[in-house]
Amino acid sequence: MGIFTPNKVISPTTFRLILLGEAALFLILWLASPFKVLPRPGEVFSALGELWRGGIGQELIVSLGLFLQALALSTVISMGLAYLTVIPVFRPLALVVSRGRFLSLVGFSVVFTLMLGGDRPVKLAMLTLGMSVFLLTSLLSIIAEIPRSQYDYARTLRLSEWRVVWEVVIRGTIDKVFDAVRQNAAIAWTLLPMVEALYRSEGGLGVALDIQRKYFHMDKVFAIQILVLCVGLFQDYAIGLIRQIFCPWADLNKERSDA
Amino acid sequence: MSTAYEIRETLLKIESISHSYNGRPILKDVNAEIKNVHVPGREQGQIVGLLGPSGVGKTTLFRILAGLMEPTSGKVSLGAEGLPVKRGTVGVVAQDYPLFAHRTVLSNLLVATDNDAAKAMNLLERFGMGEHAKKYPIQLSGGQRQRVAIAQQLLCSEFLVLMDEPFSGLDPVAVHNVIKLLGEAAAVDEHKTFVLVTHDIEAAVETCDTLWLLGRDRDEKGQPIPGARVQKVFDLMERGLAWREGITGDPEYLRVLAELQDLFPKL
Fold first, then answer.
1. ipTM beyond cut 0.90
2. What DSSP letter does each residue of A70-104 carry, written as one string?
3. Residues 172-211 (B) with a CB less than 8 A from some CB of A
């Protein structure tokens, strides 16, 4: 029973079999659940079909557009700020921005509305801010964890300090940055419905979810969640694939590749 | 049987190096010198061992010699011209044999050669690593990684390469391989000079032609006085132990070992 042994390395086929088994178990538990409030799988999938015919695809495109824009902006802003910390004068700024993760996004809604006007720019600003503070925190931690020996090593190769930044801080950590972006992209899908529910004129999955929730259409709520989950899984896979292309060294000696 | 040799110009001079950390002396008046040893008929570099117990200040002296740290006082100069040591002029091979993980073996060497691929490939071939040129460091064994790290530092340093604990954590076969590799690397050029920081007495005697013993003085109660200096220099060329293979059965080797083992606890 190797699958219950700690640190046991299993083959991809075994992993898939376990995954299938656990999915089947989950389905059985779901079907047998005593909670009547939970919609059954059949109801959820039929709700998904109904939503699709009703135009949920359009809402998905709206949300996806907003998400991609915010992801691009927050990645550029966070990477820029994090890498700027190699210059001491920028360190306090980056630290202050990263502490923004303790602030509620809702608190910025009025300020952003007055400053930017229009639902789209406000949604984009809120989502970008929400994502940036978390991504920046992760990136600062990645940079802080680079050991002194790595800097020393680069310096002994007669590299200029800017070249040390390029080789050690930027290229040397790029695989970890991809991981952080991947996690941050997942966080974005938890923020997005909230932001869209606040500014509804453009629609989006957040608005659809809010409407179904208000009318207690749990089958449709679950259907939208499953749709988001599918998008999330694809996005995870895509970022992982890009990471593999740009960082082929990163996973060469990993014992496990199922994360 | 000792090899004929002659002592020539100064390659490295350590003059009155003292260093304190938070007011606590780590090094106190360290003086030492490495001279070019010429062996007629062959290229023969120098291998100097810096021996001392853990925590005595070897790493501090290592960083000062590498130009990575300024001493509180004193200076380190290179060559007959006495040029001050600066980072980048001295090759440094750290204990974990660092390489850029995101670069292939060849690409790692290119960083050290201003993209001179022919020079880099030539050295890789000499070190038996030509077929691994396209691999990433993570795909190499420990021994292969050592070879690449040393090759890289040979390419970018003027002539001096410092190695931090090259025998640490290695099994006897691996230690033997490192000793052999260092011998090969030192034979690349007459001026190539390796300074090995280690506490492995046996491996140091087998590898080096000179040993510096770093240690602290003792007060009248036998307690160590803070601040280490070079307490003793062992000239293994003079004792006929340098540049020879299979010296471990030599009575002189055993005598040197016994002397060192006697001195070591007092450092």
1. no
2. HHHHHHHHHHHHHHHTTSGGGHHHHHHHHGGGGS-
3. none
